[in-house]
Specification:
It is built from 12 helices and 10 strands. By secondary structure, the protein is of the alpha/beta class. It has a domain of 159 residues: 3-Layer(aba) Sandwich (Rossmann fold). Strands 6-7-8-3-9-10 form a 6-stranded mixed beta sheet, sandwiched between helices. A 4-stranded antiparallel beta sheet has the order 2-1-4-5.
């Protein structure tokens, strides 16, 4: 459950592009990634947040059952900023999202939103009262429900159905592409439209923080660009904070203000997205360069 991989598999690279000159196995990527960085200081994390942090994770140890996946992991990101997590398979990228949202066992450490400790809150409490929404990987729509009914499912924590309907209407007004399909079953939507519906459903609760798991997974290139344009608008126009895991490491770092490289459940390297794109080791292991 620790997340989809950015590492190169046999015959390919971290962004899914075949290469002829170098073939790194998943195990090789993981081994070589151990040499990246030497840990990241608290001062560096704070500086990269881009202002007062809206979301902070401090010295988090978390996992599933008795298994600890994340070790003393820290994160900070300001309002209206974006952060992309990359790293080899099994590094713990999706476990970071799971832990922030409340899907894992927290052994130690704290998670705060806007200065409030939310570490022990359940996922529904984090969505309702802390403004954290989780956008799952692909195929989380209800295919036999209409687009509108799917949106209404996102408002199950609102005080009544009228409030959910009002929120759904606002989302449909924002995205005419979905409004045109409002009465149709989600099963007829294209891959890009389904992803838009998944994102839109998360907006029903008007969250401050969006946790986005693999936004490009399973999509054709033309839809990938559309999804990242939507996320960019949510960040830059609506001021939402985005933390994502993205298997296409190049696309994720091009989008994000900040990039983190995870290795074996720890933060090995952090920097502006554009800076990590130019890092030789990062490029060779995760970007196909």
């Amino acid at each position: 459950m620790s997340g989809g991989g950015n590492g190169a598999g046999p015959g390919g690279t971290g962004n899914g592009t075949p290469r002829e000159d170098t073939v790194l196995s998943v195990d090789q990527v993981a081994r070589e990634a151990e040499s990246i960085g030497g840990g990241v200081t608290a001062e560096r994390i704070a500086a990269l947040a881009g202002g007062p942090p809206l979301l902070t994770v401090e010295n988090l140890a978390a996992g599933y059952g008795k298994m600890e996946i994340l070790h003393a992991f820290s994160l900070a990101i300001g309002q209206g900023r974006s952060l992309c997590l990359i790293g080899p398979n099994g590094a713990g990228k999706s476990t970071v999202l799971h832990s922030i949202y409340g899907f894992t066992r927290i052994f130690s450490g704290t998670i705060t939103v806007d200065g409030r400790d939310v570490t022990g809150l359940s996922p529904s409490q984090k969505l309702r009262s802390a403004g954290i929404a989780y956008i799952l990987q692909d195929n989380s729509v209800f295919p036999d429900m209409t687009v509108t009914e799917n949106l209404l499912m996102g408002g199950y924590l609102l005080p009544n159905r009228a409030a959910a309907r009002d929120a759904a209407d606002r989302v449909l007004e924002k995205y005419p592409r979905l409004a045109q399909r409002a009465g149709q079953r989600a099963s007829v939507l294209s891959g890009g439209e389904r992803r838009l519906l998944e994102i839109s459903r998360a907006l029903i609760m008007d969250p401050k923080v969006l946790l986005v798991d693999e936004p490009s997974i399973g999509l054709e290139p033309r839809f990938i660009d559309m999804v990242f344009e939507i996320l960019a608008e949510l960040q830059k126009v609506d001021g939402r904070t985005i933390v994502m895991v993205e298997q296409n490491a190049k696309k994720g770092l091009e989008f994000a203000d900040v990039g983190y490289v995870l290795v074996s459940g720890s933060l090995a390297l952090a920097g502006p997205g554009v800076e990590l794109l130019e890092n030789e080791q990062v490029g060779r292991l995760f970007l196909g360069g």
